[in-house]
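Lab notebook: predicted structure, single chain.

Context: the supervisor wants predicted structures on file for every construct in the current expression panel, including those that have not yet been purified. This is the next one on the list. No modifications to the sequence; it matches the entry in the shared construct table.
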Amino acid sequence: MAKFLLGKKIGMTQIFSEDGSVFPVTVIQAGPSTVTQVLSEDKNGYNAVQVGFGVKKLNKPEAGHQKKDVSKKEKGFSFLREFSPDSDKAPQLGEKIDVSQFEIGERVSVKGVTKGKGFQGVVKRWGFKGGPKTHGQKHTLRTPGSIGSAFPQRVVRGRKMAGRMGGNTKTIVNLKIVYIDKEKNLIGLKGAVPGNRGSYLEIFSRK
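Prediction complete. Output recorded below exactly as produced.
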């Protein structure tokens, strides 16, 4: 991946095109991100750069890790991620990365954590139809029904059942950049991205 950046989801809006059609747009506070660590093949076993975004008060281990690049007294970066840059254009420690590297019309991928929905039943989690609404139905309208089989006499692995929903890492690929504000470090992507408002995101382009 040649281009990468960290950001925070602001929310969604809509933009009208020249022909009058409307399409959804996700607005992201993209950077500026700071290179907090440069990893090399000789020292770390692989080549990568770690970038930081956001602000929070650090504990002692975090402060020790970020002491080389944190200029704020007791605050550092709250969101750290690693990327694999091009070998000939690898950024240096402390270098700032912003939205100026992207262009309108370019396609990028966005990685984030989906909204957590807690423990949910099979109707919401998997889209089950449920039982009949009449004819002797009482408290089993949204139940999954039988979960076993005649053979083998057990519940097979992977059976769709109730459980925790959401809170998973998900990547949306091939999102088109339709808006860039370099002064405010804003970027607008056509379509939706994972997470709720205020969640952190990874933005990168693949080659």
